[in-house]
Amino acid sequence: MTTGSMRWRSPCPVSGMFQLTLVEHVRLSFGSALAAYEGHAEAAARLTRFTSYAKIALLSLSGITAGLGAIAVGNGYAWQLAFAILAAATFAACAAYVGFNQQPRIYGHRVSAARMWVVCEKYRALLAEMHDNAIDLPALQERRNALLHESASVLEDAAPDDRYTYQIAKEALAGFDVFSTSYQQNQ
User: Fold this and answer.
1) What is the tally of structural domains in the chain?
2) Which stretch of DSSP H or E encloses residue 136?
3) pTM of the shown model
4) What is the structure's pLDDT at 163?
């Protein structure tokens, strides 16, 4: 049973669980797209940092191994054994780096972030047109549906299957508040 103050929200005699306007739905969808963009951008940056640190560590380990090899040439068996162990460790670290090839995942997150940025810009344009009352209801519904399908295709096609993608999806679907984003705070 609806109260007098609730009648304007729903023509149904029983109040629904969700009372969401089209404008609110577009804003929430924009918030989810923005969260996905920020998540993929951060995942790409995080994986790139990890790859850079791994390269620095491998270069340092190789330098130490070369220095120990130079020392071991003129010294005894203990130095030569230490050099052999360090050379094996360097080889194992290089093999692990090559085996854990992060480049496809980095590229996947970068592509997803770039495509989601375009979707976010389209949402911003739609929100601006809604704010200016420059769009009619059927066009608004059509563009909203097109943006939802475009967001879904980005997340289906380009997102790599890793723990970062799971975390991005979890945060994007957890009721992201579009008004607390860094975009809104910088305006």
Assistant:
1) 1
2) none
3) 0.69
4) 67
